[in-house]
Each structure stands twice: as C-alpha cells, then as structure tokens.
Amino acid sequence: MATSETEAHLGGRRRTVLVVAMLVVMAGYSYVASGTTPFTAGADTVTAVPFAVAAALGVRALLRRREHPQAISRPAGGRMLPWVISLGALVVWEVVTYVAGFSGGRHAFPTISSLADEAFRHRGAKAAAFAGWLGLGWGVVRR
Asked: Cα–Cα distances in Å, from 111 out to 51, 94, 125, 130?
C-alpha cells in the first residue's frame, strides 16, 4: 500500500474504533440513566449532562463558523416547518388529553407522558428510549 492509502486506511479504522467506543459509552450511559427515578437529582443530572455537552459543541461550532466566514450557511427556512408542526401537534395532544382526563378519567384519555410512564416501567425500554434521545441529540449537533 502507498503511504496515502495506508494513512487513509488507518484513519478509517480510527474512525470506526471511535464510533464503536461512542456507542458503548452511550449504551452504558443509557443503562445508568434508566436506573434513575424521574424528577430526582440523579435523573436531573444524567439528563443535564448531555444538554451541557450539546451546548458546548454548539458554541464550538458557532465559534468555528466565525473563524471561517466563507463557509456556506444554509437557511433553516422550510426545514424547520415539519419540526414546528410536529412539536405543536404533540403539545396540543398532551394538553387536550390532560384536560379531558379530568372528566373521563386518566385511562380513558391517556397523555403522551402517561403512556411513556407505562412503557418506561421496564428498564430496557427506558434505556433504549434514552439511547435514542442521545442519538437524536448527536444527530442534531452534527448538523
């Protein structure tokens, strides 16, 4: 192999090792998070750490953009609309079912949070959801 091919091969291998290591850390972190009780200091902490990391990476990305102003910035415009509509629909669903639950009983009109509480009684489901949340956050930060 030529030197550049060898370097490319080693770079690809390092990237693979890094991705696998990140997945292992994410799985372990999700398992730890799934063992916490909601609305406790432990749960708040394991939830706050990814937010802090994402914020730090976001600030870093903004600083890099300032260093390289020639980088093309794509306007968010239409890409945000599906997210705004989805979030709005979830909020409306949550509020309507919460209010309806006062008259018809909570089980007749379950909120998204009450459905999630039922699913997350199982530690594996809670860990998988937390890992999905971490993955989604990583995807947002990477963009």
From this structure: 25, 5, 18, 19
CB 8 within 8 A of CB 113: no
Q: What is the value of pTM for the model shown?
A: 0.63
What is the secondary structure of 82-105 as a DSSP string? HHHHHHHHHHHHHHHHHHHHHHH-
Kindly report, residue by residue over 34-79, the tens digit of the pLDDT. Answer: 999 877 899 889 989 998 988 888 888 888 877 665 655 555 567 7
Residue 80 has pLDDT above 90, yes or no: no
Q: Would you state the structure tokens that stand for residue 47, as one six-digit string? A: 């939830």
What ranges in the chain are assigned the alpha helix state H?
Answer: 3-34, 41-67, 77-104, 112-119, 123-142
Kindly state the tokens that stand for 55. 């914020």
Tell me what pLDDT residue 13 has. 84
If one counts every other C-beta atom within 10 angstroms of the C-beta of residue 110, the result is: 17
3-state helix, strand, coil in the chain (%, to 5): 80, 0, 20
* Contact (Cβ atoms closer than 8 angstroms) between residue 112 and residue 93: yes
Residue with tokens 């989604």, as numbered in its chain? 136
Let me know: does 34 contact 127? Beta carbons within 8 Å.
yes
When mean pLDDT is compared across 50-59, 100-109, 123-132, the lowest value belongs to 100-109
